Amino acid sequence: TPENADYMIASGSADLTSIVRGQIADPHLANKARDNREQDIRGCISCNQMCWGRRSRDYWISCLVNPSAGREHQWGGDRFVTSSKPKTVLVVGAGPAGLECARVAAERGHRVTLCEASPQLGGQFRLAGLTPRRGQILELLNWYQTQLNKLEVTVNFNSYMDAIDVINVGADEVILATGSLADGLARQRWLGHVEAMPGLDHKVYSVEEVLCKQATLSEHVILLDEGGNWRGLGTAMYLLDKGHQLTIVTPDAYVGKELSRTTADLELRAKLKQGGAIFMVESVISHWHGDGATVTSMLDHTSTRVSSSALVVATTNMAFNELELELAELNHPFHSIGDCVAPRQAPFAFYEGRKLGLSI
To answer: Among 89, 113, 303, 311, which is most exposed with the fewest C-beta within 10 angstroms?
Structure first.
């Protein structure tokens, strides 16, 4: 941050500071700091997903919170041209996609109303900020709140919208960013023929329920992690910090596979192991019994019974697109962005929000 840099130079520790990822996240960082606008600096969340994590994938990098990075030839950089035809815009859902679309549309001069069913900004992204080492996500959401206030975006919390509500607003543009929900059937991608995990009526919780403190957990917990990313493994760290004994079951060849390109995987596995977590890799859960699970190896199909008080499931979410279906049936025009199109990781949501905000 500029504060870090100022302190280093003022204390004589350095003659020059180099801020790299910070200026990818916000290329206007230096100018904003010079103008005493630190509160307007969009901070890096240290995710490494689209910068460092792309170093061996292709020839350009981007940024989760600033998708204009790497697309300067398409979008002209992280700047906005005022629309010649200001519109009224309704955005439903204040997760990453909805927040970014609302902000960009307002930057371009549109009159924006943002409706969120919960009492806070962020959606599931806020839950991610509650896991260990992810507090910068909450700082980013505070930045969005500041920017929306400055841009005079009307934000309505605790506002669940149905199709009639949306139509009655009478907005020129309707953007649906309603996100996704945990799959209540706990389907596993390597057991595609199984419509639902057997035994789901006994102490089975999603990671969202855990982080919202809606889960009743005793000493030992099994975590089924199909994503290999922060969604499941951040929850694993959260559970260890709360004093639970933990067994992690994953179909991947190693825990944290999707984090390996961000260089977070080795340190994370070390912390999990040091916290006593047991890893069961290349495995699926073929049955949950309420007091334990049958864990089956994908390699030799042998099964092991693992005792546990609860099962936490981090499988692929399901798009929450009920409002989209209602509006489509009524032939009312709308745009859909983010997880309600298809549940994916945060970079896709920010990208779609920025792209649509630039185009309307």
So the answer is: 303
CA nearest 246: which of 274, 227, 267?
274
pLDDT of residue 261: 87
Structure tokens at 204: 């089975």
Helix 136-150 × helix 96-107 angle, to 10°: 30
Q: Which residues in the chain come in under a pLDDT of 70?
A: 58
Q: What is each CA distance from 177 to 29, 56, 97, 104, 319, in whole angstroms?
A: 29, 31, 6, 14, 10
Res 323: pLDDT? 98
CA distances (Å), origin 358, targets 63, 75, 78, 100: 17, 8, 11, 10
Q: Are 43 and 21 in contact (CB under 8 A)?
A: no
Residue 333 CB: number of other CB atoms within 10 A? 9
Which residue has 């042998």 as its token pair?
Answer: 302
Q: In 10 A of CB 63, how many CB atoms?
A: 27
User: Residue 114 pairs with which residues in a beta bridge?
Assistant: 91, 155
> What per-residue confidence (pLDDT) applies to 133?
86
Please give the structure tokens belonging to residue 239. Answer: 């559970």
Residues in CB range of 93: below 8 A, 6 or more apart = 115, 116, 117, 123, 176, 177, 178, 179, 338, 340
